[in-house]
Amino acid sequence: MKVTTKTIYALQLLLALADRGRVSRAPIQLREIAETYNLPFKFLEQIAIALKGAGWIHGQRGKEGGYVLSVPPRQLTLGDVLRLLEGDSSSKSNSHHSPQEDAIDAFLERCKAAMDDVSEHTTLADLLDDAARRRPADLEYQI
Amino acid sequence: MKVTTKTIYALQLLLALADRGRVSRAPIQLREIAETYNLPFKFLEQIAIALKGAGWIHGQRGKEGGYVLSVPPRQLTLGDVLRLLEGDSSSKSNSHHSPQEDAIDAFLERCKAAMDDVSEHTTLADLLDDAARRRPADLEYQI
DNA sequence: CAGATTTCCTATTGGTTTGATATGAATGAT
DNA sequence: ATCATTCATATCAAACCAATAGGAAATCTG
Prior knowledge:
Two copies of one chain form a homodimer.
Chain A: H1 5-21, H2 30-37, H3 41-53, E1 57-60, E2 66-69, H4 78-85, H5 99-119, H6 124-134
Antiparallel strand pairs in A: 1-2
The first copy, chain A, binds a DNA duplex (30 and 30 nucleotides) through helix 3.
């Protein structure tokens, strides 16, 4: 029902990397992203590691290091991101099955399915496009 | 993303009251519901008070007291229940509006809207029917 | 009226999650 | 070598969650 700020930050990070990746292939430092978007650097670090674990970004260590998106933005669905960061939530382990509980579970499952239908059909590229659309035209050239 | 057990219990309570309400108009005690469905009594009490506050159930105090559903099951949507128990979550107060954040917010809003579309169109009566459908036929007559 | 019973109300507790910071090791560019 | 950066853990405070506790208020029965 409620999405954590960790997930929001992750999306912002992915957005930033995708945005920069359109222009240059040079790695981008977390420190810079944290500053430009006003995000807690150390927290971002943890999130970046998680994203790296999923194989979506590549981290280059050392000086001049940073992160690069390692997946085409059109190929990464926001459902993927939500699933990674919001836990699996598929606690099918409840062995008690009263008809009432089953009906409730089924209802909640339908809610989740409706949400998934949106998130699985929205890609990072879509999000990037939407952000660009919301950016005033005269800022398009500040890149 | 994750629904609390409080909400689950609330739905079970409403289901129980709706089920009993089809037969008799006598109030049903929380103690009994807690026992038959194996729910923590004191916790149920709090939930019942919340549901009463929303005007969906009526509480009768004293001996032979209990709770009665005070709303037609077909009129109470599960969206109503979710909204009451899962907080409002409409934290539109964020005055910082980078295009990126806006795009992310819009995406999450679309997810929520998809969920709401299901929950607002599912009523307690639907849930009751579904539970009855899942109940073996030979238990229909145990009432 | 007296007593029993049930809802109503508020506080508190233990445990988990969340958001964030701290510290330092590993690694790579120059 | 040096420095900057990712990588990896550990820790912390605050918030939230599930549940319990204790009693006040109301209402039925006798």
